[in-house]
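FAQ: What does the model actually see?

It sees only this:
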Amino acid sequence: MGWEIERKFLIERLPGDITRTKPVSIIQGYLILCRNGPELRIRSIEKRYYLTIKGEGSLRRKEIETEITKAPFKSLWPHTVGKRIEKRRYSINYGSQEIIIDEFAGKYTGLMIAEIEFPNEKQALEFDPPPWFGKEITHNSKYRNRNMAC
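And it is asked to produce this:
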């Protein structure tokens, strides 16, 4: 079982150098959502499919992700009706860090969130965000994908 350690920030516009990267399309739906508890989701990124369990938390939480084939994804997808999100994901380098930017679609069109994953909490807390980052939302549950999907 792995740990996901990440910080999240709102951004108002995509940085200029991001136009050189090709975004990937993501759809994800939730099969199980426990209030303030674990979640079980499925996700399609282009033509790859994943089943993920995430534990509680904001900065640090348990995560188990496994790649699945299209068949189980398609059979599970109908069970996510009313609990889905769509987004385009960009990935850029910032020094030695990778910044993931999710540009949401549907009812969240216009919302953009930057995420940075870290190997440990110390590095996460020491991270100095670039000037184009907006408000930090790491601990704001309103911006958790699971809550936005409902």
